[in-house]
Design goal:
- The chain is α/β, with parallel strands linked by helices.
- The protein contains 17 helices and 13 strands.
- The chain has helices spanning about 10-15, 65-75, 90, 115-120, 140-155, 170-185, 200-210, 220-235, 245-250, 255-260, 280-295, 315-320, 350-365, 375-385, 395-410, 430-440, 475-495; strands spanning about 20-25, 30-35, 50-55, 110-115, 125-130, 165-170, 190-195, 215, 240, 270-275, 300-310, 370-375, 415-420.
- The strands form 3 sheets. Strands 4-5-13-10-11-12 form a 6-stranded mixed beta sheet, sandwiched between helices.
- The termini are far apart.
- InterPro entries: Ser/Thr_deHydtase_PyrdxlP-BS, Thr_synthase-like, Threonine_Synthase, TrpB-like_PALP, TrpB-like_PALP_sf.
- Belongs to the threonine synthase family.
Length: about 500
């Protein structure tokens, strides 16, 4: 629709203009800092930062019903700048003009309801939100669209010149960072650090294809992160990990889309996400809090954060007694099929602690829960989901396994409706499926195949015929007819097909 076709009362609000007063706020010393400089930690105390709009109260002057109309009508606009995460411009990056927005097709990912068979097996109505259908095939594009739009804005305003973006990654972050940086060449160049031999071939191919400088180093993600942090402290680079508060801001769009897709009715909803570096669960909590405070939703949904037993420092933290004496202890991770979640010292842990307390307090009840699952659970539920029409990655399997565990723990009721996060496309982690089908997982994963879920190709080469077609040497005539009859007959027998009468 064109702008002049919308209701006159809503029309002036559909194309957002720069507004608000964004600042960095430290979660440690609570000091505030301007956004004209790229900051990742507080210059005074070194703690992590959250972005805050000092003029957020202005958004409350618009009633919730009007906001819902604005967002629903804005969804119909053709302007690329508001087709993605900046459909929620006032809540994500209100100071950024639309001319600075980088849009590559991210956001507005589908919410797909599980079929009746899978819902019966799970014992609850649930949907997958398929964030693997973002441009680089993972949810990380949401945060990169925000971070790179902000950097593009700084360049246009003359605050920075040429920029080298850099990140540590288990795969998806590097793919998204390299893709968005490539779109802004030559103003921005990209470098990524990966743990050697701990990224799938599909994920490794992405930053290489986007032209990034790719460095593999010994160790795991946590080791890569320490190197990147050292580089960002000593050199003039733009850090694109979730330590970057603009990344968190962009990922809030995930919660806004869920609210909009369910007509803003969140009272009986449960949102399940893997934790990993803890940026996603941070963003989801922050996003729902903003929509609640603005009156767009009238209830805060439950949130379930999920971790594998092989990388579960956040789960362990919240297993401690709630007496004000909890202590976060980083851990040494073990191999996990949910590679992006294989993080023993999440950068955003201080944000998690801050926002969990605030979320539960605002809700007036316990609304954030944590679940621990096994590697076996992750693989079994991923394959089960995909056998029922989904394209869930291993992290999608982790989320669904987490939903099952939350129900067992009594944290989620079967009468509620769950939205389960599949953070990336299944094809990125096809190697783990192959290992499952071939029973070739190394012992460190503790995964053994369930025969009912194993699927392998069957080679059909009937012994009753002597000649077979080859590339460049096709069969013809009677020889080809015999080949077709023999092969089709063997397949029909294998499938127990009944002949037509």
């Amino acid at each position: 629709m064109k702008l002049d076709q919308f209701p006159e009362a809503i029309r002036p609000r559909l194309i957002p203009k720069p507004d608000g007063e964004m600042i960095y706020r430290c979660l440690g010393c609570r000091k505030e800092h301007g956004i004209e400089t790229l900051l990742y930690t507080c210059p005074d105390c070194g703690s992590v930062l959250l972005l805050h709009d000092r003029r957020f109260e202005r958004l409350k002057a618009i009633d919730g019903g009007t906001w819902r109309k604005i967002l629903d009508y804005r969804r119909m606009l053709k302007d690329p700048a508001v087709k993605g995460i900046y459909r929620y411009h006032e809540f994500i990056g209100p100071v950024i003009p639309l001319s600075s927005v980088v849009y590559l097709g991210e956001g507005h990912t589908p919410v797909v309801e599980a079929n009746a068979h899978l819902q019966a097996k799970a014992g609850i109505r649930f949907f997958y939100k398929n964030d693997g259908q973002n441009p680089s095939a993972s949810f990380k594009d949401r945060g990169m669209a925000s971070a790179l739009s902000y950097i593009n804005f700084l360049i246009q305003e003359g605050h920075v010149d040429e920029v080298l973006s850099i990140c540590a990654s288990t795969g998806d972050t590097s793919a998204a960072a390299a893709l968005y940086a490539a779109y802004l060449k030559p103003k921005i160049k990209s470098a990524v650090l990966l743990p050697h031999k701990k990224v799938t071939p599909q994920q490794l191919s992405q930053p290489l294809g986007s032209g990034a400088d790719v460095f593999e180093i010994p160790g795991v993600f946590d080791d890569c992160m320490k190197v990147v942090e050292a580089l960002s402290e000593r050199y003039n680079v733009a850090l694109l990990n979730s330590k970057n508060a603009w990344r968190i801001l962009g990922q809030e769009s995930y919660s806004y889309e869920i609210a909009q897709d369910f007509d803003y009715a969140m009272a009986d909803k449960v949102v399940v996400v893997p934790i990993g570096n803890a940026g996603n669960i941070t963003a989801v909590m922050s996003g729902f809090l903003k929509f609640f405070e603005a009156g767009i939703i009238d209830a805060l949904p439950k949130i379930v954060g999920v971790q594998s037993v092989h990388a579960n420092p956040v789960y362990r933290y919240y297993r401690q007694p709630e007496d004000g004496q909890r202590k976060f202890v980083p851990m040494t991770v073990k191999p996990s099929v949910a590679q992006a979640a294989m993080i023993g010292n999440p950068v955003s842990m201080p944000r998690v602690i801050h926002l969990v307390e605030r979320y539960n307090r605002v809700a007036g009840d316990l609304r954030v829960f944590f679940a621990e699952v096994t590697e076996q659970d992750i693989m079994d539920w991923q394959l089960t989901a995909n056998r029922n029409g989904h394209i869930a990655c291993t992290h999608g399997g982790e989320s669904l396994a987490g939903l099952m565990k939350a129900m067992q723990n009594g944290d989620v009721d079967s009468k509620e409706t769950a939205i389960v996060d599949s953070t990336a496309h299944a094809l990125k982690f096809a190697g783990f499926q192959d290992m499952y089908f071939q029973d070739s997982f190394p012992d460190g994963y503790a995964v053994r195949p369930n025969p009912d879920l194993v699927n392998r190709p069957r080679y059909v080469r009937p012994e009753s015929i002597e000649k077979f077609p080859e590339a460049g040497r096709p069969l013809e005539g009677e020889a080809f007819d015999r080949f077709v009859d023999a092969v089709s007959g063997q397949i029909a027998e294998s499938l127990d097909l009944k002949k037509k009468v």
